[in-house]
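Can anyone check this?
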Amino acid sequence: MPRVTSRRRPWKQLVFASHPSGEPGTSDIVMGVLGIALLAGFCLIMAANVVDGLTGVTG
């Protein structure tokens, strides 16, 4: 039985591959916006925890 080999590109080529036009694709923009939104939400939660810890207010 012949062995099936798949030709996969290394992950660096997949991650850092540039688009033919040199512009970011739509999925790159969506992922960037999503990442920024998640990071901002995380920072707000952490800031709320720090303020809560400094004021000593219990809920």
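Reply from J.R.: I decoded it. The radius of gyration is 22 Å.
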